[in-house]
Amino acid sequence: QVQLVESGGGLVQAGDSLRLSCAASGRTFSSYNMGWFRQAPGKEREFVASISWSGTKTSYADSVKGRFMISRDNAKNTVYLQMNSLEPEDTAVYYCAARGLVTIKYEYWGQGTQVTVSS
User: What is the pLDDT of residue 26?
Assistant: First the structure.
């Protein structure tokens, strides 16, 4: 099992940047592919970005492509989400999640961190 704790959220203005972190503990972090998701008020949770266990493969939602960047440091058991050019539409609770190397579904989730972007 792995425990995930997000941090780095906050209140920013449109155009600003934020970097979210997700610290993992428990089983070997490099055994997991990682993802970031978000949920805005009244909306379904949606995929934001993912990164493979080695960090060599990444994927992004169209809405954040070119503005957000996911990365990981396996030595620090941490995955990051660098968010640039933030827009009010990015306001949401952001969650990190982990899934095993042969698992399709994300099995472990953090508690979330709030990101609020004012116009």
Answer: 77
Task: State residue 88 phi and psi, 5-degree precision.
Answer: -55, -30
- The answer to whether 62 touches 79, Cβ cutoff 8 Å, is no
Strand partners, 53: none
User: What sign does the dihedral 93-86-10-116 (CA atoms) show?
Assistant: negative
> Is the Cβ–Cβ distance between 94 and 70 less than 8 Å?
no
The predicted-structure confidence for 14-68, as pLDDT tens digits, reads as follows: 999 999 999 999 778 989 999 999 999 999 999 999 999 999 999 999 999 999 9
Question: 113 pairs with which residues across the strands?
Answer: 94
Q: What is the CB neighbour count within 10 angstroms for residue 119?
A: 9
